[in-house]
Amino acid sequence: MRYRIAQRFLLSNVIVLSLLFILLHYLKKDDLTRRSPKFDILDVPFNHSFSLGTGSPNDSHSSKSKFIIGILSQDSQIELREALRQTWIPLLKKDLPLTVEYTFVLDNPTPATLSELRTKQDIVFLNSSYSGYAVRFGEKMYKWFRYVTEHYPDATLVAKMDDDVFLCVNKMFQRLSNLKHRRLYYGWQHNKEYMQIDEMFVVLGMDLVLRINQRKYCYRERSQCNNKSELVDEGWGGKSIGLWLSVYDDVLTVPDNQNIIYYNRAMKPPIDIRKEDNFCQKYLLYHKATVSDMVFLHNMTTAGETNK
Prior knowledge:
InterPro entries: Glyco_trans_31
Number of strands: 13
Strand content: 15-25%
CATH topology: Spore Coat Polysaccharide Biosynthesis Protein SpsA, Chain A
CATH superfamily: Spore Coat Polysaccharide Biosynthesis Protein SpsA, Chain A
Number of helices: 9
Organism: Sinanodonta woodiana (Chinese pond mussel)
Helix content: 25-40%
Subcellular location: Golgi apparatus membrane
Membrane topology: Single-pass type II membrane protein
Distance between the termini: 91 Å
Largest sheet: 8 strands, mixed
CATH class: Alpha Beta
Radius of gyration: 23 Å
GO molecular function, one term: glycosyltransferase activity
């Protein structure tokens, strides 16, 4: 009898300890992998908008809000930068529903990029501490947001995008004009359970940028950082931003996957742009565009607008 009691007692302890281990393991998981139930993920139809409700004079529908784009680029990608300058970037000067300004964002100056800056006047150097593929991209996001806060304090929306993205200017900025909100978090979402918009094109409202800037970037090892009070770097910029925003319960997330053509190395290209009648009548942007893709899409878009 005593043996059975001791056996049952031991078994019950094992079960309790196992449950405690599972609970502790769950609690130690990254905040990024657990979406807060208060985190609003909104399905906004293309021609719809939602109420601003922020009380900011910069957000009035009667005046144009300012939208700032930082295009992250590597020193060697001068051909891509030039392709953007010759295709969709000049269209930003058109009569758009938002006032749009752009700049290329590079890590650190070199003789070649300094010469390019003197000629083009559209480059900002972040003076990043790290370089390399997916190495501390969170620091680049942090420094870009600090730059925008200092130089464009009146902005309503802030974006970071890659230099291999072709924007369908008219349709994209009509869409963002309908969504402009100082707590907006917009782009291509990786997973409904994750608070992660891909960094190839991610838009944040200025209130979220200001909140991020109130926290310090953690340069220590990740395990020594506190996500609630510091900015923890996940390597990728988009993943880092998602983690930073996970501590707030009032972020307005608008995934737009159905209108954005996203590509990564794990996927085949989802469409053949050369078989499309007019890409920019259907979609907002094309990711992983080559120089020839940029020229093709620009010529197609220009011809489509001429034939209207």
